[in-house]
Amino acid sequence: MDSNKKPERDSGRQGKSYSIYKRMIVLIVCFFCIPFLISGVYWYNQASRMIETKAVEHGRQLVDFMNGHLASYFEQLEVTTSSVLSSQLLKTYLSKQTYDEYDQYDFTQRASNDIFLHLLSNRADIFNVSIVGNNGLVASSFSYKSALEAYNRYSKSNEIGAKFSIKGIRWIDGTPVLTIVRNLINNASYRSEGMLIVDIKYGIIADLIQRMSLGQSGQLWVYDDEGEIIYSADPDTWGKPMEENFPSIPLISGRDSRIDQSADGKTLTVYNRLDVADWEVANRVSVDELVGNLNNLSTMTVLIGALLVLLALAVMCTILFVLTRSIRSLQFLMKKAESGDLEVRAPVHHPTLEIANLYRSFNSMVDEINRLVRVVHLAKLKEKEMELRQMESRLMLMQSQINPHFLYNTLEVVNSYAIEAGVDQVSRMIVAISKMFRYNLHDLKSKVSLAEELEHLETYLSIQRERFPGLVVETQFDGQTVDKVPAVRLVLQPIVENCFKHGFENRESNTMWIRIEGHAEENRYQLKVIDRGAGIDPQTAEWLNARFAADDKGLPENSLRHGEEPHIGMWNVHSRIRLAFGPSYGLRVACPDGAGTEIELTLPLEETDDEHPDRRR
User: Domain limits at 153?
Assistant: First the structure.
């Protein structure tokens, strides 16, 4: 149950998984669409503000230019009218306290000839010139009525001592004029004795003011400090109050700007001042007109950006479809491999290099897993085979023992009869056989010293000497060394048995010679069993040595039947030595130049736990 719940805990820790499609769409939206939209809005706002700022600066530049132009214009007009102030005619008539009709007539005629004619001939923009004295004398080049109206209107509001003053707009017989007045000052008393009224054709000034308009559809208003309209697009409103005709336009003095929102859209109103005439200028223009094609450009940019994003999404989705299809195909193959089908293979060729490399890696991985599975399978088969061989060897050994306990007890009874009968030779052989059975009762896997194994071999040879009186056995050992050499039980007896069975069995001579010698070599102990028997042919010796050298191979199957075939005893000895001490030890067959056979047996000199950690106890 715990193993079944573990994947659930793992999936909970991992959290929710998302497909690569969703991740890429979120990536494009977060890192492309939203930044593009934000940057577009920011760019549009900044561009709009910059254009509005430029429009305000442009309006002020126009006003400054108009200021200079009007200042030059009025200065010239002031210079032109300055000659009237020093006229002797004005000094003579305006200083009179009383006058008659003739004086009025004479003043009018002489003013027309001396003053009006001069001004009107030099300035084509002058519509009317009038002189009105404080004593009641009036002279006008066009209308006495308009002269008196202007005098009555401006005499009280005209500044004391002002020499040149620009007034508002008037209409004379349907013609709009800009009225300019000058005080006629007595040089002796420095008192104003009258007023020079100059009415300029306003069309010329209106054309100049109109040039200050911003844009094609811009609206322009010019008004004075009293709120009277100096200029607007509707000439019928000239000279009338701003609040009555244009209540939506705030009367602001000085330089300012404001943006208003209406049903028609946003409008920018720029306020400036014409200092030369003390006029206020209100210039209104649509923000959409200022921005111009910026809206279209921004819309086009957004559309192009959206199109590019859609195109990028389409391309990305196509690429992702190819990639994910390949990944899903690989995932399907991996599931088949996971279920045990190790014969699946991914396509070798793919248009995408990374996917092709991934496929090749998958194929290599499956090949390696398949190889490792075969290796493990073969290893297990060989292990089972080795176990079967060991079991067969034990079985044959047990069969050869023929119930050693029973034989041992039987031999004890026979020995007692031999002693009673006085047959010492039989008694010795029975005792030797008893020792051999007692030695054989122990586990063949248990380790003994080489000295114990040699003692057991001597017991065996004592029996063989009774059988073969001509047997000669020579031994040469280091008595102190053999006690330190580890061995397993019954490794020498089978080898010496082979000497009798294969070396001396068919020989006519009764002389048998066997030599057993041993010496230490570095960390191993080398034993040799040498006989002068029939010997072994080189091919058989080479075949045996090849089997001994291969630790994972045994004798052919037919060599294990019934224990009758040759060399089974030596193979058992070799296998048990290798199982006990490792592949560096075991048997080897040598063919000396003379007759006979030489068996080399290699054992460890002093076995330690570090040499064979897999066999520690």
Answer: 86-205
